[in-house]
Amino acid sequence: MGSASKQSNPTGKQPKPGSKSAQQADRRARIAELRAVEQRRERRNKILTIGISSALVLAMIGGGTWLALDAKDKNDKKAAAAKVAADAAQKAKDDAAKADIPGLQTFGKLTQNHVKTDVKYPQTPPVGGDHDPVWQTCMSNVYDKPVRNENAVHSLEHGAVWVTYNGKATPEDIKTLGDKVKATPYTLMSPYPDEQGTITLTAWSNQLVVDSASDPRVETFLAKFVQGPQTLEQGASCSSGQM
């Protein structure tokens, strides 16, 4: 404050208390003190802001890292569960492929030419042989009317299982079979009034006749022959065929 007084009073004489010069000196001193206080406050706020920002950044980094690790852990668990399920399904399919099915009829090697004419088949329903160039759509399709033999046989060539039934099948049987087919790609189902057995399951060169949809051999047949070892054209489409 003495310095400020000297600047405004070059003579070095102290201003008289209450004089205008003294009042100006006091005012300058208060302003300087207020500026110093404000500067200290600004420095303190800046330090607090930097500290809070740093803490937030660290929290965000930590939170993001935790979320990433948590997501990875969930994905790893999901992948592991999917692999276990896939391995179990493959084992069941392998076991079914090796299983003997009582009553299964196998017909050996059959011709597989594409023809435009009707074909007279020795089996009813047919289990293979020459067939139409267009397959019957067989991606879990349930038909309420008979389908053409020649188109269905082409589906068998692609590894499909054809489920048929006659008038002896009960509504419960038809519903149960339909539900199974709807849940199983590379299958199709249709009525077949002329077949002798109540329910017939047909794959290329293989056929099984059962009396009820609850017969456990139905599941075994589906597991064994849907895209099974008898498939002549592995990976061939069952979509976009004859409807």
Automatic annotation (TrEMBL):
<dbReference type="Pfam" id="PF11303">
    <property type="entry name" value="DUF3105"/>
</dbReference>
<feature type="compositionally biased region" description="Basic and acidic residues">
    <location>
        <begin position="25"/>
        <end position="37"/>
    </location>
</feature>
<dbReference type="InterPro" id="IPR021454">
    <property type="entry name" value="DUF3105"/>
</dbReference>
<keyword id="KW-0812">Transmembrane</keyword>
<keyword id="KW-0472">Membrane</keyword>
<keyword id="KW-1133">Transmembrane helix</keyword>
<feature type="region of interest" description="Disordered">
    <location>
        <begin position="1"/>
        <end position="37"/>
    </location>
</feature>
<feature type="compositionally biased region" description="Polar residues">
    <location>
        <begin position="1"/>
        <end position="12"/>
    </location>
</feature>
<feature type="transmembrane region" description="Helical">
    <location>
        <begin position="47"/>
        <end position="69"/>
    </location>
</feature>
<protein>
    <recommendedName>
        <fullName>DUF3105 domain-containing protein</fullName>
    </recommendedName>
</protein>
